[in-house]
Design a protein that fits this description.
Layout: H1 3-14, H2 19-24, H3 35-43, E1 55-60, E2 69-75, E3 78-84, H4 101-106, E4 116-118, E5 131-133, H5 136-152, E6 159-163, H6 171-181, E7 186-188, H7 190-193, H8 199-205, E8 212-213, E9 220-224, H9 235-248, E10 250-254, H10 260-263, E11 267-269, H11 276-289, H12 295-298, E12 299-301, E13 319-321, E14 324-325, H13 327-333, H14 340-347, H15 351-364, E15 368-372, H16 374-377, H17 382-395, E16 405-406, H18 426-431, H19 461-468, E17 476-480, H20 484-487, H21 492-498, E18 503-508, E19 520-523, E20 533-539, E21 542-548, H22 564-575, H23 580-588, H24 601-617, H25 631-637, E22 639-641, E23 661-662, H26 666-678, H27 683-689, E24 718-723, H28 737-741, E25 755-758, H29 760-766, E26 773-778, E27 781-789, E28 797-801, E29 814-816, E30 820-821, E31 834-835, E32 840-841, E33 848-853
Parallel strand pairs: 6-7, 6-17, 9-10, 9-15, 10-11, 14-23, 17-18, 18-19, 24-28, 25-27
Antiparallel strand pairs: 1-2, 2-3, 4-5, 4-19, 8-16, 12-13, 20-21, 21-22, 24-33, 25-28, 26-27, 26-33, 29-30, 31-32
The protein binds ligand MGD (2 copies), iron/sulfur cluster and molybdenum atom.
Domain 4Fe-4S Mo/W bis-MGD-type: 54-110
Protein name: Dehydrogenase
Cofactor: Mo-bis(molybdopterin guanine dinucleotide)
Length: 854
């Protein structure tokens, strides 16, 4: 609109009644507005202009794993605005931009509004399911019949519960119900999320989890792939603090792609995909040769003379460690040969750069932070990259130090509902003894979560085992909050597997790619606006617990995934004669204050949250943090904050085998030995079967493993670099128009397009220009999108955001629902490979591709 027009309209509207001005006084007293505002106001019906008549209701965003505490402004039962919850001790009033997308999610016109049933018995990508609406009663009837039939046929283990995103009340639907039915197959999405990330922290310092970074006091940040102002964990907090941190912190971002955080760093190192450990290990080598390690944490030579010399062994007795274990063994076994020159040969990074980084880190120690992201570690040999990167945190004394990093403080949140074993009948007891369908714990899948063979999950392999009926077929699936054929590598495998499953129910807000293969669709209440749930988050030294509660009038005939649906299903199964889950629910999950079971499913949803959070408000939690007066106090505030993390609190008592920070991981040695013994093989054989290169003791220390690649380099000369979009809320914002409209918030990307970004050097060689339609192919699949030339990608690689390429989900997500995808999905290119020690899927490093114009 031109300025002239604005003024004209303003004049015209000014002459209109004063009604608009009166209505606008709700904004606070008699304000005078510009003519243009008043003119707009005059066009709006009076009820819509009311302000200050709504209320802020606390909830939690689950757009990403930051799980920020939020408030929703609700008027007349409608959500109007979302903001951060000022009661949060983690992020305060800060937020990432994605919070606003949640309004488009909940009010998505394509939401699933009622249960539906498939009428086309044939299943496949090309088969329209021909869903028709049915009642909740009918839907649950069908599901209950299928489960009971399995139990009667002595096949209860052929039931599987697949879990995508979840909240802290998931235990009932995920584990307890699955066990009560008689199946070992509760399958989490964790292994397509970030399990390899946890290997370094767990096997070096005993923390199976993530860390928070004391960024306010940091002096040096070295990030391997992490882009904390766009993705990673606690985006809101780091977005708030990153700018200030740059004033006192030197930041080096190692990423093949120029990320948002790299754009704000002092240095960007565009590493070749899969070569991060080379840099990490060479920095460690320099730190030892130059005597830069943090002595108060690590210790020193007995005689005070540094004996670390490249290529030379050191005698174990000559070094006395303080809070660490195995430094000399690490040096002798691996580190002594990882010179900057060696690293330079592999990575092309100037040895001087490596030495300079090591010196800077030494000078900044212990206020040093080494971050790792999925990109560096969710790779075929990613466990060892995770170990190599995290070992630097030990070497520079960053662990539990001011300006360093530490886990979340201990909090008294309950993790589970009461034990279910007393309610398990013979069928259930027999059923759960079957091997898990994901093959975790098999020789080729150690999945060593918390040191236990098979302790973790191998999510993506479930598609293979269902398809091959290995060790048995899966006949009934209940899945929620997941979209595995879109989110897993080589998702097409899931299409094939799901086509073989007799009966599947999907609990979802939208008819997604996964729903396409379902027999029954169960419409989910939206997690942020319509659900009772509990989440936690760490950052700023605080571990917060925040609530999700219904804030708006439920839009459609939906139910809450983790509470109402299991309640209704249990009741239905009880009516049909199988009452164990129903008895368990009513006898065990009772209200913490009244001791009474819930009256109905709506009541039950709240009881479940009250139960899990009761130590925070029903008991005195002041030993751990805030003291809440009551449940109402908690619901109103929406957040409980822990006290500040106690620095150095784990020193001397790490939860490792030696209670030290283990450069030589006794903890990993024990876990690998346990796995090898179980299969009556040597650890070397385990390493071989699992596609790692280390033999002997090398397997227990951070060391270099060559990146594993899929495909012939001559045929597939480029490497794909997958990334998250700043606007993706995992898979859940797929149908938000703003995701596409504002796509250019991702460095190098283009609004309303799906682009693959090429370095101009490669663009020239390939004859590509901006906007060309291209096909990218890997050995396992292909996709089409547009080309974009951009200096922010390492030559030889293509960077492309994950998240487009939907062919279902809704009108904005796909070009034609059920038929034509909008853009291309990276997972069509990513071969199904694993970091087998963790069970994690590989999404990075191994993806060789080629490009052609179409
Ligand atoms: N915007 C946004 N944020 C999110 C989410 C989201 O959907 N959207 N999801 C949340 C979830 S579920 C998780 S698990 C976390 C994960 O957060 P992170 O663990 O930080 O992982 P990603 O962002 O997936 O990591 C991919 C990064 O690795 C880089 N990369 C790719 N290959 C390599 C490599 O070989 N070496 C190095 N050094 N870098 C490489 C990519 O360029 C990209 O920056 O993010 C959470 N935050
Ligand atoms: N190439 C590539 N692949 C990736 C990633 C990547 O960075 N790159 N990231 C990976 C990571 S870190 C993760 S965690 C996984 C996530 O992958 P999944 O666990 O499969 O989760 P989403 O893809 O987020 O799918 C969530 C689905 O739940 C449904 N849904 C949406 N909102 C709600 C709700 O409120 N309630 C319920 N009950 N259902 C809802 C919709 O059907 C939606 O498709 O993806 C992984 N896949
Ligand atoms: S999308 Fe993630 S960072 Fe953004 S508000 Fe939600 S939980 Fe927080
Ligand atoms: Mo994730």
């Amino acid at each position: 609109m031109s300025e002239k027009n604005q003024i004209n309209i303003g004049r015209r509207q000014l002459l209109k009644s004063t009604a608009a001005t009166t209505a606008l006084t709700g904004l606070g007293g008699t304000l005078s507005f510009t003519p243009i505002v008043e003119s707009i106001a005059a066009e709006i019906p009076a009820p819509l202009l009311r302000t200050g008549t709504g209320e802020w209701i606390a909830t939690t965003c689950q757009g990403c794993t930051s799980w920020c505490a939020k408030q929703i402004y609700v008027m007349d039962g409608r959500a109007i605005k979302v903001r951060a919850n000022p009661n949060s001790g983690v992020h305060g009033m800060s937020s990432c931009p994605r919070q606003h997308l949640s309004l488009q999610q909940v009010y998505d016109p394509d939401r699933l509004r009622t249960p539906m049933m498939r009428t086309n018995p044939k299943k496949g990508r090309d088969q329209d399911p021909k869903f028709v609406p049915i009642s909740w009663d009918k839907a649950l009837d069908m599901l209950a019949d299928k489960i009971i039939a399995l139990r009667e046929a002595d096949e209860s283990h052929k039931y599987a519960l697949l879990r995508g995103r979840y909240s802290h009340i998931n235990d009932l639907l995920y584990k307890k119900m699955t066990h009560l039915i008689g199946s070992p197959n509760n399958i989490s999405h964790s292994a397509v999320c970030a399990e390899a990330h946890k290997m370094g922290p767990y096997y070096l310092d005993g923390n199976w989890g993530y860390n928070q970074y004391d960024i306010k006091n940091a002096k040096f940040i070295l990030s391997f792939g992490a882009d904390p102002i766009a993705s990673n964990r606690q985006v809101s907090y780091y977005s708030q603090t990153w700018g200030d941190a740059l004033d006192h912190t030197k930041v080096v971002v190692v990423d093949p792609r120029f990320s948002a955080s790299a754009a704000k760093a002092h240095k960007w190192i565009p590493i070749e995909p899969g070569q991060d450990s080379v840099l990490a290990l060479a920095i460690a080598h320099v730190a030892l040769v130059e005597g830069l390690w943090h002595k108060p944490f690590v210790g020193d030579f007995v005689d005070g003379n540094n004996q670390f010399k490249a290529g030379q062994n050191v005698k174990d007795e000559s070094f006395k460690e303080t809070h660490t274990y195995g430094l000399v063994a690490w040096w002798n076994e691996a580190l002594k040969d990882y010179t900057p020159e060696w690293a330079s040969k592999i990575t092309g990074i100037d040895p001087k750069t490596i030495i300079a980084i090591a010196k800077d880190m030494g000078a900044a120690a212990p206020a040093v932070q080494v971050w790792t992201a999925r990109g560096a570690v969710m790779q075929v040999r990613g466990t060892y990259t995770s170990l190599a990167c995290h070992a630097l945190n030990g070497l520079f004394g960053a662990i539990d130090s001011k300006g360093g990093l530490f886990p979340g403080n201990k909090i008294p949140l309950l993790e589970e509902y009461p034990d279910e074993h007393a309610y398990m009948d013979d069928i259930a007891n027999k059923g759960v003894k079957n091997a898990k369908i994901d093959h975790s714990g098999r020789l080729e899948f150690p999945a060593l979560k918390k040191g236990k063979s098979g302790g973790g999950v191998v999510t993506a392999n479930v598609a293979n085992s269902i398809f091959n009926a290995d060790p048995y077929d899966i006949k009934v699936i209940l899945a929620y909050f997941n979209n595995f054929n879109f989110s897993n590598p080589e998702g097409q495998r899931w299409d094939a597997a799901l086509s073989k499953v007799d009966f599947m129910a999907h609990i979802t807000t939208n008819i997604s790619e996964f729903s396409w293969f379902a027999d029954v669709l169960l419409p989910a209440s939206h997690h942020m606006f319509e659900k009772w749930g509990v989440l936690d988050s760490i950052g700023n030294g605080v571990h917060q617990v925040s609530i999700q509660q219904p804030s708006i009038k439920r839009l459609w005939d939906t139910r809450i995934d983790e509470s109402e649906i299991p309640y209704m299903l249990a009741k239905k199964m009880a009516e049909k004669g199988f009452d164990a889950p129903w008895r368990y629910i009513n006898e065990q999950i009772v209200d913490p204050e009244t001791g009474k079971p819930a009256d109905n499913e709506v009541d039950f949803a709240k009881v479940m949250v009250r139960y899990i959070t009761s130590p925070l408000w029903h008991e005195d939690a002041s030993k751990y943090g805030d003291k809440l007066a009551s449940w109402d106090d908690f619901v109103e505030k929406g957040v409980w904050n822990s006290s500040d993390y106690k620095l150095e609190s784990r020193w001397g008592k790490f939860k490792t085998e030696t209670q030290k920070f283990e450069f030589y991981s006794k903890t990993l040695e024990k876990a690998l030995q346990g796995h090898a013994d179980k299969h009556k093989v040597s650890i070397d054989e385990v390493m071989e079967v699992c596609e790692y290169q280390a033999r002997g003791q090398l397997a227990f220390v951070p060391h270099y493993e060559q990146p594993y690649r899929v495909g012939d380099e001559a045929q597939f000369p480029l490497l794909l670099v997958d990334q998250k979009s700043r606007l993706n809320k995992e898979g859940r914002s797929a149908n938000s128009p703003w995701v596409y409209e504002f796509k250019d918030v991702d460095p190098g990307d283009v609004a309303n397009q799906d682009v693959a970004k090429f370095n101009p050097i490669d663009g020239k060689a390939l004859g590509l220009k901006d906007g060309d339609d291209i096909r990218i192919s890997s050995p396992v699949g292909s996709l089409t999108c547009k080309a974009k030339l951009w200096e922010g990608v390492r030559p030889g690689t293509i960077a492309k955001c994950f998240g487009q390429g939907h062919w279902a989900y809704g009108r904005y997500a796909s070009t034609e629902f059920g038929v034509t995808a909008r853009g291309g999905s990276n997972n069509d290119l990513i071969a199904d490979k694993y970091d087998r020690l963790s069970g994690a899927s590989a999404f990075y490093g191994h993806i060789r591709v080629r490009v052609e114009k179409v």
